[in-house]
User: Fold this.
Amino acid sequence: MKKEYKAAIIIAVILVATMGILAVILPYLKPTNQTSFGVVRIYVNSTIASNIYSQVNQYEQDIISQGYLVDIVNWSDTNVTSLRDDLINASLQPRGLEGAVLIGDLPSAIMRYYDSSWALWRTYPIDLYLTDLDGEWVDLDPSDGLFDSHNNGTGDKFPEIWVGRICPESLNNTNHLNAYYNYFSRNHAYRTGQLSRPHSQLVYIDDDWSAWTSEWLGDMTAYSNITCISTNSITTAADYKNRLTHIYEFIHVFVHSWPYEHLFGSGGYGTEGKVNYTDILNINTKALFYNLYACSACNFEYTANMGTQYLFSNNTLAVIGSSKIGGMTMNSYFYNPLSQGKIFGESMRLWYWNPLHGPSDNESMGMTLLGDPLLTII
Assistant:
């Protein structure tokens, strides 16, 4: 056999062997810059953008490291419809849109409803307006700028994206720039493993919800290490404040509230004490995440509201709660995705898709995510 034929055969054998090896290992090889998710749009209030440029830049890099594409937009328009239109346009682009982070004092939609218990018309900010991009929002009196109803429109009433707000501007007891700096510093620390807690949860159930303790606990599916406090003689303002100093990753509290205070005891009169926003500021709270079943505690339009105070005090990274009367029910639809490694924003979006309540449930419509929606507990 001629030498050139032998060489050709040897080369062919080597090529076949190499291709076989590649066929085995290629499925396990991933490019280091692979993007697994879609676009996250970060809106920064243009009046503070230059002051927090370094913090937002680090945050952007952290999100890119998660596998997302990031668009940063300096935003100055105070019209919430313009903001929603921009989100809709971004969602229609080939890259799609996963969700948005709103940094600074950015516009919110305001909805009104009739509170038959008190025979009053009430208003509240509704971020569902920014996440349901194909629903119809009806303002019967354009002069008041208040939405009156929410319909299917060209699609449905369910959210297509998620939104989180990072804004200390409603607080009157802190330097706002320092609040941004401290928040993004601990956010980065959590993402890099420098801020952590044992994987544990405190479930604190005040008197008027304690009869359903077993049902509530059955929905807490993200944690196996759960401390539950629901004995009526124990659940007081003093006891709750003390437990805020204990080491937990997540606290879920059920308590009567309004934007400035938690009101412990039956009936919502604070007969067993009150916890206000100043208490949260001054207590050395340890938890990283909160779910507040606490009426209106996350109404971020109120000065010194509880939800914002939690978020910018000590170690907190995310707060779930309602901007109106109501709160999160059927919690497993939120905690199940969270336990599977999904981010807070997506877990909340999926919770809204529960057909047994969803956005048609009046108590669900004010649900709000304060803080970074891209964090996970895994």
